[in-house]
Design brief:
Blueprint: E1 23-27, E2 30-38, E3 42-46, H1 57-63, E4 68-72, H2 90-103, E5 109-115, H3 116-127, E6 132-140, H4 150-155, H5 160-167, H6 170-178, H7 188-195, H8 205-212, H9 223-232, E7 241-246, H10 254-263, E8 268-272, H11 279-298
Helix pairs in contact: 1-11, 2-3
C-alpha cells in the first residue's frame, strides 16, 4: 500500500525540496521506506509523529557531502506502507528500526531522534549497543511522563479523536502551525510535503495510532516497553550525547530536557530560545552545525 504520488501535480509542489532516492526494506510483506544518502560517518535520523523523513531534508542536503544519512519512515508514515491491520506499537517500531540497522550492517552510528524518534531510537540503541557510538536528541522523551497536553488528549478521545485525526487530518494540519514558531518558513511547498503522505483516512492510521500509543498508566500495552527504555538510560550515559532543545515547545517542554540531563549529566546541551517543537524548521541553521561539530569532536574513527 505504498503511496502513489508519481507524476501528480501536487507532488511537484514539494518534491523539489526532497530530491532523494527512495529505498525499501521488506518487513515480512510490509514496505519500509528509507533514505540512504551520502557517505562517511553514519547518522540514523528517526522522526516522530506526524512527520516523516521529509523533516530531515535540510540536514541531509547540507551534511551528505561528509556524512552518510539514513532516514526511515516508520510503518504507516511517509512513503512506507500503511497497513490497516498492524501492531502500531512502540515495541514494533523499535523492532523495525533494529532490522533496518542490521540489514544495512551499520556501525559507529550516531542516533538523531526527534519526538517519538527519541524513544524508538533509544530503544534501538539499547538493543544494539555495539553499533551505536553517539546520541543526539531533539525535543523528545524516552521515559514516562504523566503530562499530556490537552490538545493531544482530545485526539485520544473515543469517536472524537479519530474524527479529528483521520477524517479532517486535524493533528497533522494543526502541527503545521502549532509545532513551529517561525511560521513564515512553512511555505505552501513545505506544508504540502508534510501532508502529502497523509492524504486519506486510510493513510492517517499511524498518526492516530501514535497518539493512542502514549502510555500514561501501567495498564497501557506500551507502558512496559517505555519503562524498560527509561530504566536502560543510565546504561547509555557513557556515550557522547548532545541535547538540542527548542525552548518554546509546548509539548516536550524544557522540563523534559531537565529530565534528560539527569540521565546524561555530561551531555552537550544546546537551548534554542526561540525554537518550538519542530526545531529543524525553526532553527535548522543552528542545529546542523551543532550536530556537525558534535560528531567531529566525539568521533575517533572518522
Amino acid at each position: 500500500m505504498r503511496m502513489a504520488v508519481e507524476n501528480s501535480p501536487k507532488e511537484e509542489r514539494w518534491r523539489g525540496l526532497y530530491p532523494f532516492a527512495s529505498r525499501y526494506l521488506d518487513l515480512d510483506g510490509v514496505k519500509y521506506h528509507y533514505l540512504n544518502e551520502g557517505g562517511g560517518p553514519t547518522l540514523l535520523l528517526v522522526h516522530g509523529n506526524p512527520t516523516w523523513s521529509f523533516h530531515w531534508r535540510n540536514l541531509i542536503l547540507v551534511m551528505r557531502p561528509q556524512f552518510r544519512l539514513i532516514a526511515p519512515d516508520h510503518v504507516g508514515c511517509g512513503l512506507s506502507d500503511k497497513p490497516s491491520t498492524y501492531p502500531y506499537r512502540l515495541s514494533q517500531h523499535i523492532d523495525n528500526l533494529v532490522r533496518l540497522v542490521e540489514h544495512l550492517d551499520l556501525h559507529d552510528v550516531t542516533l538523531v531522534g526527534h519526538d517519538w524518534g527519541g524513544a524508538i531510537g533509544v530503544g534501538a540503541v539499547q538493543r544494539l549497543k555495539d553499533r551505536f557510538s553517539r546520541i543526539v536528541l531533539l525535543n523528545t522523551a524516552a521515559f514516562r511522563s504523566p503530562r499530556i497536553p490537552l490538545r493531544i488528549r482530545i485526539c485520544r478521545t473515543p469517536l472524537l479523536g479519530p474524527l479529528v485525526v483521520r477524517r479532517f487530518n486535524g493533528f497533522a494540519r494543526a502541527a503545521l502551525w502549532m509545532a513551529v514558531r517561525r511560521h513564515e518558513r512553512m511555505t505552501s511547498d513545505v506544508r504540502a510535503g508534510y501532508l502529502a503522505p497523509y492524504d486519506s483516512w486510510a493513510h492517517r492510521i499511524a498518526i492516530q495510532r501514535f497518539v493512542d500509543d502514549i502510555p500514561l498508566s501501567p495498564r497501557h500495552s506500551s507502558y512496559s516497553t517505555l519503562l524498560e527504555i527509561e530504566r536502560g538510560l543510565p546504561g547509555l550515559a557513557h556515550l557522547p550525547t548532545a541535547l538540542i532543545w527548542g525552548m518554546r515547545d509546548w509539548c516536550f517542554t524544557p522540563q523534559f530536557l531537565d529530565r534528560f540531563i539527569e540521565f546524561f549529566p555530561n551531555a552537550d546541551v544546546h537551548r534554542l530560545a526561540d525554537a518550538g517543537h519542530w526545531v529543524m524548521e525553526d532553527a535548522g541553521e543552528q542545529v546542523i552545525p551543532i550536530v556537525e561539530q558534535f560528531i567531529t569532536k566525539s568521533c575517533q574513527s572518522c
